[in-house]
């Protein structure tokens, strides 16, 4: 396997091809609880960037101490950036619904500080409608502060990634986020 990888790198260099590979991720472990609920959580995130192609795999395990039950969830995504446009999709599921949500999105960012997003949320769960909603938003990011205004269109009580979580029945929203 090492020889094959080495040969591919040498061939890429000889052919004059250039590429950048970045791999990153994080692991979070938490124990949370109160007198009635106790949960042990492990969350893992892995990001892989190969030039304009981005992959991310996120997953987590929750151990519910009182019920001695394991819960798990995952999300797998891929996106591709062409000039100022990014196109991507994610799939997500959990212990109860192995393939639950499918999101397709397109983003346009003429500069790093401002842009617009269009997200479509679908469900693969047989107990739900296939089309769960759409989120249209614009953002301005000035360093640690992000401002977003948008509209979440849904009839199914499904929030999207950009809308605030409490906006489950759709509507106009504006939000500010400060990262530190």
Describe this structure as you would to a colleague:
The chain is mainly beta and 180 residues long. It has a domain at 83-180. The protein is 7% helix and 62% strand. It contains one helix and ten strands. A ten-stranded antiparallel β-sheet has the order 1-2-3-4-5-6-7-8-9-10, with no helix packed on it. The longest helix is centred in the first third of the chain and has 13 residues, at 2-14. The radius of gyration is 20 Å and the shape is globular.
Name the descriptors.
single chain, 62% strand, 10-stranded antiparallel sheet, 180 residues, 10 strands, 1 helix, mainly beta
Output mean pLDDT: 84
- Count of discrete alpha- or pi-helical segments spanning 4 or more residues: 1
Q: Largest beta sheet: what is the strand line-up?
A: 1-2-3-4-5-6-7-8-9-10
Name the poorly predicted regions: none
User: Helical amount among residues, as a percent range?
Assistant: under 10%
Euclidean distance between termini CA atoms: 42 Å
According to DSSP, the number of beta strands is: 10
What kind of sheet is the major sheet? 10 strands, antiparallel
Report the portion of residues in β strands. Answer: over 45%
Give the SSE string. Answer: HEEEEEEEEEE
Secondary-structure content class:
mainly beta
Gyration radius over CA = 20 Å
The general outline is globular
